[in-house]
Write a structure and sequence with these properties.
Layout lengths: L3 H14 L1 H30 L10 E8 L3 E3 L1 E2 L1 H10 L3 E15 L5 E8 L3 H5 L5 E2 L14 E4 L1 H8 L9 E4 L2 E8 L18 E4 L15 E7 L5 H17 L11 E5 H6 L2 H43 L4 H37 L14 H26 L2 H8 L6 H39 L10 E7 L8 H16 L4 E7 L10 E6 L11 E7 L3 H5 L3 E4 L13 E5 H7 L9 E4 L7 E7 L14 E5 L4 H5 L6 E8 L7 H11 L6 E5 H7 L2 H35 L1 H9 L4 H30 L15 H27 L3 H7 L1
Parallel strand pairs: 5-10, 7-9, 16-21, 18-20
Antiparallel strand pairs: 1-2, 1-11, 1-12, 3-11, 4-5, 4-8, 4-11, 6-9, 7-10, 8-9, 13-22, 13-23, 14-22, 15-16, 15-19, 17-20, 18-21, 19-20
Helix pairs in contact: 1-9, 2-8, 2-9, 2-10, 8-10, 8-11, 8-12, 8-19, 9-10, 12-19, 12-21, 12-22, 13-17, 19-20, 19-21, 19-22, 20-23, 21-22
Length: 816
């Protein structure tokens, strides 16, 4: 400490006398440290923080991939019950399904997401109530059917956070339910983390109820807690044994066998975003290295001014270690100031991130500059100060340097060594910049390819909004059908509205789920299980969505509940089940042949429903009015999303649409109000987020590398000013001087670009899983990026070269 305090005082005096250097160095370090702190805070919240469950590493999701279906999470109630009873690797198995409900009574009606859960769900997750109690495995589902658990946000927002809420009755879809508890703030269901509107209310579900009966009724998400000593792979093997028995018993087909596995819950919650965030963290690490190289170059450039000072210190007996300590103190001081400013930069970045709240990034709302992040910033700051300060400190403290300075030498071997080291730093900056720019451009080109995908519908000038009709207010299917028919007509009469239709689930807002079918005149082959993703739509839906009609007709007003049952299918379903004939006029049953026939009346083009990049799946669209007669019984669709296509701004009709709904039933709220373009944009939020940040970091790297080239060439010009003056006095042309300086800078840039290209050829393989429609060896990218860097480097060289070409020989010789 006796040495440190004087060193700090001396460092402050030196920085005060070199404000230009100090400002540039501090800003450069602040950008590098701030970017790393911001991304680390995101990585910590999303990847490093454990899920809000007890022993979360023991939880697995029951996941599957089935031929012709792709990935699927949907399970039936009998499958859940069998997994829980017959798979010894599972300690507990729980399930849930989510939908929207209306909260009414005392306030403005509100639409919230509610999840029906098995009573053992919270016990399986090992979650405790914040207030009151939760359902547990010992509860009988029928006995607790009228109970409800609230989420913390809903409790605060609608009920003022009153602890008296326990035991009170609230209106859920028009039915009275008793609140028994409130969950902690951090709690979310496993698949809710990436959802902009997670579940906020939980009701008990009875797997043995009549509504959930049937092995083909897939609509549940299932997860399990592993027994001690059992891993996910072993559990998957135990599942396969049980599934083989299902096939023998006729509950499953061979086609489904082997499609399911137990996947660690953490992996599925994070999905592809985990890999993207590690890539971003690596990118900001490169940014910091470039920043360190830049500041090290600046420090070395200042070293010429300090040669006499270091020589005097050495002559007075200062050891090399003592000199290094002094110089490192100055470097670390710079780093601390840069780190403090970088923390402010990181705070601004995280606030911008929270404001953007990119859909598809789980747990982004938990990002903060907490104690762990600040400790990371402190350690990073210290390491940064040492990294960029160590090489200049060791170079300046070399004894031979001091001797050379005492002798007045300018061009000794030591000077050449320093110059080579500075050149190496500049080359490294350019190489890192090439890698980042190539990665960023690949992601940009991939994102452009994603945006150009034909979604199968027109996203322009369309408003979407969702509502649900409670069973107690509209108990009969006919009442629900009549209400939605009237509401659609009211919407259609609004000023500026062109067409109106409604559907069970909008494309790109969730997976549909499939329903097995029986084809007319066709006996199922062993292992065959004809099925299609099912949609329920009203007249006007296809027109409002702007979907392409390939053949036949769409759903019309004549397709009411008393009319012959019809369906529209997509081209994938038509080609799969009627490949050599026209599917129009063909018939099928929903499920078994005890249900009535449904006739195909139309075929639409392919629609990207579950994801933008999905492989097209077989889809069937049944009229809303006919869903109940087609075999759903009393399970008429009570929740529909309307698509209102307008002549102008779609949001301009929102107020009138809300009034139209209130005129029919003031207790029904509107929810999920978005434009159709917004729905499509949200589906690409994750690649957009990654691309945007990596492009920003690449631009920052390019700027720092450009400054590095400029600094090296400027220093070269300053040091060779007398030489340049002599050359010009001896007759050298200005263009020759200009060329000499530019060649020097462009040589460094060229070497850096070549090294960067080699590194990019290797490192771009890390992006393979993040690219769509473009390969990691994309020729355009590998041609444009070097050309761009060469152009930028040329500009950075021309400025100091221009100064060199205007040197006055007489003045430079007089200075000498």
């Amino acid at each position: 400490m006796d040495r440190l305090l004087p060193d700090l005082a001396h460092s402050l005096r030196r920085l005060r006398h070199a404000p230009g250097f100090a400002v540039i160095a501090i800003v450069t370090l602040a950008l590098g440290i701030g970017a790393n702190t911001a991304i680390f805070s995101l990585v910590k919240a999303v990847l490093l923080r454990p899920l809000p469950y007890g022993d979360a590493d023991r939880l697995v999701m029951i996941w599957g991939r089935v031929a012709d279906k792709g990935e699927t999470t949907w399970l039936s109630a009998p499958e859940i019950l069998s997994y829980g009873a017959d798979v010894p690797a599972f300690q507990q198995v729980a399930a849930y399904t989510a939908t929207g409900v209306n909260l009414t009574g005392g306030q403005e009606p509100e639409r919230v997401i509610a999840a029906a859960v098995t009573p053992n769900l919270f016990q399986t997750l090992r979650v405790s109530a914040q207030v009151g109690r939760l359902f547990n495995a010992s509860d009988s589902a029928p006995a607790i059917a009228d109970q409800v658990v609230l989420g913390h946000a809903l409790w605060q927002r609608r009920f003022g956070g009153s602890r008296d809420i326990v035991g009170r009755s609230i209106q859920v879809n028009g039915s009275a339910r008793t609140v028994v508890g409130v969950l902690p703030p951090a709690f979310k269901l496993p698949m809710d983390f990436a959802d902009a509107r997670p579940s906020e209310l939980w009701t008990p579900m009875d797997l043995n109820s009549e509504n959930l009966a049937g092995w083909g009724n897939h609509g549940l998400l299932g997860f399990a807690r592993l027994r001690d000593g059992v891993d996910a792979e072993r559990a998957s093997g135990a599942m396969a044994v049980v599934e083989e028995r299902w096939v023998r018993d006729g509950n499953w087909t061979n086609r489904d066998l082997g499609g399911r596995t137990a996947q660690p819950l953490q992996n599925l919650v994070l999905g592809d975003v985990r890999y993207a965030l590690w890539v971003l963290l690596g990118a900001v690490g490169v940014i910091l290295l470039i920043a360190c190289a830049n500041v090290a170059n600046l420090t070395l450039a200042r070293s010429d001014e300090r040669h006499r000072e270091i020589a005097v210190r050495s002559a007075l007996g200062a050891s090399r270690g003592r000199i290094v300590q002094q110089l490192l103190t100055e470097s670390v001081l710079l780093a601390f100031v840069g780190g403090a400013l970088g923390t402010a930069v990181a705070y601004g970045g995280t606030q911008a991130l929270l404001a953007a709240h990119p859909a598809g990034i789980p747990r982004v709302d938990e990002v903060s500059l907490d104690g762990g992040v600040l400790v990371f910033t402190l350690l990073l700051t210290i390491a940064t100060g040492i990294v960029f300060g160590l090489a200049p400190a060791l170079e300046l403290s070399r004894p031979e340097v001091s001797r050379a300075l005492k002798e007045g030498g300018r061009t000794g071997s030591s000077g050449r060594t320093r110059q080579r080291f500075r050149d190496s730093l500049t080359v490294a900056q350019m190489a890192f910049s090439v890698v980042l720019l190539i990665d960023a451009m690949l992601l940009v080109r991939s994102f452009v390819e994603l945006r150009s995908i034909d979604l199968g519908f027109n996203t322009g000038k369309a408003l979407t909004l969702r509502t649900v009709i409670p069973a107690n207010a509209y108990p009969e299917p006919g009442q629900v059908i009549a209400f939605y028919r009237t509401l659609r007509q009211r919407f259609a009469e609004l000023p500026g509205v062109q067409t109106v239709g409604a559907t069970r689930l909008l494309p790109l807002t969730g997976t549909i789920g499939d329903w097995s079918i029986t084809l007319e005149g066709r006996v199922r082959a062993p292992g065959e299980n004809p099925n299609g993703d099912w949609q329920v739509v009203t007249p006007g839906y296809f027109e409002s969505m702007g979907m392409r009609l390939a053949r036949g007709r769409t759903i019309g007003e004549g397709d009411h509940e008393n009319a012959p049952l019809v369906a529209v299918i997509n081209e994938t379903m038509a080609n799969r089940y009627w490949p050599a004939e026209d599917a129009i006029g063909k018939r099928f049953h929903l499920g078994s042949d005890v249900r009535p026939w449904i006739t195909v009346v139309g075929i639409i083009g392919q629609v990207r429903h579950n994801a933008v990049t999905e492989t097209s799946r077989a889809e069937m669209y049944v009229p809303h009015a006919q869903w109940s007669p087609a075999g759903a019984g009393a399970n008429v669709r009570r929740d529909l999303t309307f698509v209102i296509r307008t002549a102008g701004d779609p949001l301009a009709v929102l107020g009138n649409a809300r009034d139209a709904l209130r005129s029919l039933d003031p207790n029904l709220p509107l929810a999920d109000v978005r434009t159709l373009a917004g729905v499509a944009n949200d589906s690409l939020s994750q690649p957009r987020f990654t691309t945007m940040l990596l492009t920003l970091f690449a631009a920052l790297a390019l700027a720092l590398a450009t400054i590095g080239i400029y600094g090296v060439v400027s220093l070269l010009v300053a040091r060779r000013r007398q030489e340049i003056g002599i050359r010009m006095a001896l007759g050298a042309k200005r263009i020759a001087i200009l060329g000499m300086v530019v060649r020097r800078g462009m040589a460094l840039a060229g070497v850096g670009v070549l090294i960067g290209l080699g590194g990019a050829l290797v490192l771009t393989r890390l992006l393979t899983s993040m690219l769509y429609g473009v390969t990691r060896f994309d020729a355009l990218t590998f041609a444009v990026v070097p050309a761009l860097l060469a152009a930028v480097a040329l500009v950075a060289c021309l400025i100091p070269a221009g100064r060199a070409a205007t040197v006055n020989p007489l003045e430079s010789l007089r200075e000498e």
